[in-house]
Amino acid sequence: MTEATTIDAELAAASAAVHRHAQETPRVGLVLGSGLGAFGDELEQLVKVSYDSIPHMAQSTVVGHAGNLCLGRVGEVPVACLQGRVHCYEGHALERVVFGVRLLAELGCRAVLLTNAAGGIAEGLSPGDLMLIVDHINLMGRNPLVGPNQEPYPRFPDMSRAYDVELCHSARQAASIAGVELREGVYAGVLGPSYETPAEIRMLRTLGADAVGMSTVPEVIALRHRGVRVGALSCITNLAAGLGGELSHDEVKEVADRVKGSFTRVLRQWVLAAGAGVSSQVEG
Would the pTM of this model clear 0.90, i.e. be above it? Predict the structure, then answer.
């Protein structure tokens, strides 16, 4: 059995386990980053499935990542929500890191909205800001598609529009409806777990990065490989090295908790818009 067929078998087993709890097929998936998991607790008709009870699903060791798959609804939109993610720096192989988002696709999600906590690099970004990711720079030195290709998906997927244009547009509208200012920028994905040095931040700024974090990029690649529409939102929880004070994960959690209200309002409106787009896609 090849690596690709092994992954397919693992996804089938995980999907079967989740479907025993699901009341309907989710159409929009979400990944909730560091300290941002409260949104999952607010789903209507909520059913929680612990990662521990899902075959082949890795458990996060990072504080602020609850480790639940939340099934439910936002309005009339059926959703599946990953309450926390795993990271490469925890020692997981990349196929484990992206297993959760591949599972969302396997469950039926046609659009996935990713969120993360990130360090602000661009001038004008402050802790508490929300930034729509419009592109990324992969500096992790890894790619989840290395190895045998998973058929029938493309060996060389196009990443020129990794972040869906319509989902970006609906994110802007969602922020406007929620009364929240939304910034936009390029996200640099790094391996971690150490924070960047001031020299590295100067390099990232020169490369065109507006924010930096230790997740999301592998998930985007894995989802686009499967043809899933992707949108992503960063919560700027700290200024990057050399631009502010000492960096700590406690600050990340504190800021994420402080912006929980505005983040939840924007995300709710975004899910509603994404769900409407998916419904029209299905009907068409």
Answer: yes
